[in-house]
Amino acid sequence: MIRALRDTARALVGMRVAAVVIAGSIAIGVGANTIVFSWMQSVVFRPIDGVRDASAFLLVEPMTDRGVYQGTSWLEYRDVREQVRSVRDLIASRMAPLYVGQPGEVARANGQLVSGNFFTALGLRPAVGRLLQPEDAAAPGREPVVVISYDYWQTHFDGDPAVAGRRLRINGQPLAIAGVAPEGFHGTVMQLRFDMWLPATMAPVLFRGSRELDDREERGYSLIGRLAPEATRASAQRELDEVMRELARLYPRANGATTAQVLPFWQAPRGPQRMLAASLGVLQAIMLLVLLAVCGNAATLLLARASTRQREFGIRLALGAPRWRIAGLLLRDSLALAVIGAAAGVLLAIWSAGALTGAAPFRVRGIPISLQATVDASALVFAAILALAGGLIAGVVPAIQIVRANPRLLLANASSHAPGRGRVRRVLVGVEAALAAAVLVAAGLFLRDFADARTADPGFQQEGVLLAEYDLTGRRDDVDAARIFAAEVLRRLRQDPSIAGAAMATSVPLDIHGLPIRSFTVEGRARSDAAPDHALVNTVTTGYFALMGIPFASGRDFADLEDASASPEVIVNEEFVRRFLGGLEPLQRRVTIGGRSAAIVGVVRNSVNDAFGEPPLPVIYRSFRDSPPLFAEIHARPRAGAASSIAPAIRRIVSGIDPEVTVFEVRTLREHIDMNLIFQRVPARMFAVLGPLLLLLAAAGIHAAVSYTVSSNVSEIGVRLALGATPARVSVEVLGAALEVVCAGALAGWVAAFVAALNLKGAIPDALVLIAAPALLVAVAALAAWLPARRAASLDPATVLSDTCQC
């Protein structure tokens, strides 16, 4: 073994340049695949941090008849939990912004309202104290307790072991800390980190005016559970279908057009996981293509290197060495390079994961998102498997070619004339070109989609708007107080000399969790099943559309906040009119939503709401005056040259009205929109690095193959030059032979990439990318082949023929 290692080290030193290129390229391929595999693990195998067998959990997702996933109501959760026996340990949870601290010292925390069986169903044990029990959520407001996260315990209580029993003032209410969640558990929304968990039955106490415990149309909960013993997803789906049909019969208004699906956790249709899971599979497939391209490049280089050792192998074979031992020497070298490359690839994965996701942690509405890849034992096993496969793929072709050769030809230095040898090199180069073309097209499409999303017109003005959130929960008890507060904030903002315009809304477009969905009925539209329709809903103030640059198609804006004489109003978008009213006149037609009827006073143009590239969705804009919420997003546009002073002005104005109200999540609209693109930005960054590297690797492989072809045909080239062939003709023929193979491979890869992109996108991909990617590959290949072609044309015929005769 020691001798074998020594011989391998000597062989690698003898091919230093090729060894560095091969090991480095394998490191890139293994590192990129390991990063993506680590992300896939967090989505598929570990969707809930800190929970064993988390991949066994399934989602129960209600869906409208138009395919919109709308969440679950608390009452619907209780019905499903009691009647669907195929799913056990069904738990409910929803995100809730919380405000912790005494008046004037309030800090925001990220919480989840959960069912009483939340922690027991997840199989968690407390780090300190106790966790929530079913009796804690048995009745509204029965147990004013809270469980804090391990991280929150460390940062806010210095890890005090006596924290259980201490009180926190949350949303103005004193709650006792029941205990601390185990270390590593962050909540049940994939990639998001929460600070605390409270019984869902505390909602009416913590959120004044909340009707979520007794209103079936208040949908905001997510449901997860495990299959019961002997149950399958199919049996659970059948049972769920029956339950949903019965609920539709009993409650046609809330459930008339609602079905539900049982889905694996990684197929979650809402939240950040729907964006992440949608692209990871494609990204992993592309990264495997990158690795295959790397292996093809390594095989080309190893074949060229093996050909320089043909006399050595010929002597070994002539002296009786078994052919399998010769093959073992080559495979040993390729596996050694693969192991070195894999080790470097794992280090590259560990180092570059943070660079790909960004140094600063992502936050959505104040909630941290964890996108860091963890290279654990399973990732190391994955990297080892890739290294083994890569080493075998790279080494098996030159091994087969050498051991099949005739020893006399090897000793005579005539290996280039061995049957099939040149054909194998051409096939390797063609395969490498095909894989490179496919990956470059995919990389170009990713980068172009990201760039298009950054520059696309969403239907509103993205620049020059500052967002700031406030929440009156626990400080205002009624809607009149909330309306008065909002009106005073807007009045002072619009009077401030640094602010050109101000408005408020409950939701911001392109939020990673999307706009809420509500059921409604509209005058003039009848359904045969008497079920309500569904639309996205946002609640906005007067001036919102002008500030956001969303033009009116017809009608007018809302009445002012302080206008008590106006009747209830709503504004809808063009897609709402097209989908639900057809050719009917929309203005003054009445819409009933949440039991309240309002007249349509305006129609605005369509704009992007949930994600770039989405089809137009119907939206109802409710008047802030008619339904004043306790929380809102302030939208303010600064005057020219006053951008730096607008944030302090907002804080000063809000605190001047009520010192206990804190402004949170101050950011620009552009920064908010960029959060919607984080799952496109990460692969875009990866491809921005891998694309040029792959071109360099392809160029190295093509250069090596053409160089070897030239060196093995020196005599033939010399004879042709002596017989009158011009150097230019020799260069053109060598270059043409190489480009013929490259173009054939690039065409095959281009066709495969085009078909795959057509199926995924459902439309013809970007023409510029489809043309530029293969053209760039062919240009780089031409340069790589031209260098040895020029060297062939510069040969001296006399010297070549003299050397040949001496041999």
What does this protein look like?
The structure is a single chain. This protein is α+β, with helices and mostly antiparallel strands and 807 residues long. Helix content is 50%, strand content 17%. It contains 24 helices and 23 strands. The strands form 4 sheets. Strands 1, 2, 3, 4, 5, 6, 7, 8, 9 and 10 form a 10-stranded mixed β-sheet that branches. The protein has a 6-stranded mixed barrel with strand order 15-16-21-18-20-19. Strands 14-22-13-23 form a 4-stranded antiparallel β-sheet. A hairpin with a 2-residue loop joins β6 and β7 (173-180). α9 (272-307) packs antiparallel against α14, α9 (272-307) packs parallel to α20 (678-712) and α14 (421-455) packs antiparallel against α23 (767-793). It starts with a helix and ends with a helix. The relative contact order is 0.11.
Mean pLDDT: 82
pLDDT < 50 stretches: 414-420
What's the β-strand tally?
23
Largest sheet: 10 strands, mixed
Number of helices: 24
Structural class designation? alpha+beta
Oligomer: single chain
Percent strand equals 15-25%
Output the radius of gyration: 33 Å
Overall morphology: elongated
Helical residue percent band: 40-55%
The CA-CA distance between the termini, in Å, is: 38 Å
